[in-house]
Specification:
Blueprint lengths: L8 E2 L2 E2 H10 L6 E3 L10 E3 L7 H12 L4 E4 L8 H12 L4 E6 L2 E2 L3 E4 L4 H9 L5 H7 L2 E4 L1 H5 L4 H4 L6 H14 L3
Parallel strand pairs: 3-4, 6-9
Antiparallel strand pairs: 1-2, 5-8, 6-7, 6-8
Helix pairs in contact: 2-4
Length: 182
């Protein structure tokens, strides 16, 4: 993308600020896991315990360092509403090991909540070089946010829009343009 994704501009704001705003409405303790500190956010940063194992390693780092449930919202998912994160957190507090959206035939593991009880299995999987979070979610008591329960928070394709390419960024910008009164 030519520059760090978190700093790409979306609606006159850095991309990361969108997820930051949602997280700030759900928790007072927000931490960035891995990478260089994102300018302007002022978050505490925890270095990845396994720097080359992707998002699963970031989740492991968060679970090791957190005192309770970990709520996850990737910096490249600008339209995740706070209500969705709150619902995931509630599901974990009520016994789910994880609660994440299941949409379009797949899990969206970087938008949800995880119980500290997931740590042992996640570490075992990472030790075996199994870094796929979808495989983890398939193997535990995951509460899927799907169908009407997911749509209650908005249009799923929009909420789960992930910005990984210039085309994704153009689509996100178009979504914002469509939101403005004409």
């Amino acid at each position: 993308m030519g520059q760090p994704k978190a700093e790409m501009e979306l609606g006159a704001r850095p991309l990361a600020s969108w997820a930051a705003a949602s997280l700030a409405r759900v928790s007072e303790q927000i931490v960035q896991v891995g990478g260089e500190p994102i300018p302007g956010l002022g978050w505490r940063v925890w270095a990845d315990r396994r720097p080359d194992a992707g998002p699963a390693a970031g989740l492991e780092t968060a679970l090791i360092n957190a005192a309770s449930t970990v709520i996850v919202c990737a910096v490249d998912t600008p339209f995740v509403p706070p209500g969705l994160l709150r619902a995931a957190h509630r599901a974990v507090r009520h016994g789910a090991l994880a609660a994440v959206p299941l949409w379009g035939g797949r899990w969206h593991p970087l938008c949800g909540a995880y119980s500290p009880d997931v740590l042992h299995l996640l570490t075992t999987r990472l030790d075996a070089r199994q870094i796929d979070l979808s495989g983890l979610l398939d193997s535990i008591a995951t509460w899927p946010l799907r169908g009407a329960a997911l749509r209650a928070f908005g249009e799923p394709d929009r909420m789960l829009q992930n910005v990984n390419s210039p085309g994704d960024l153009r689509r996100a910008r178009a979504m914002l343009s469509n939101d403005r009164p004409g």
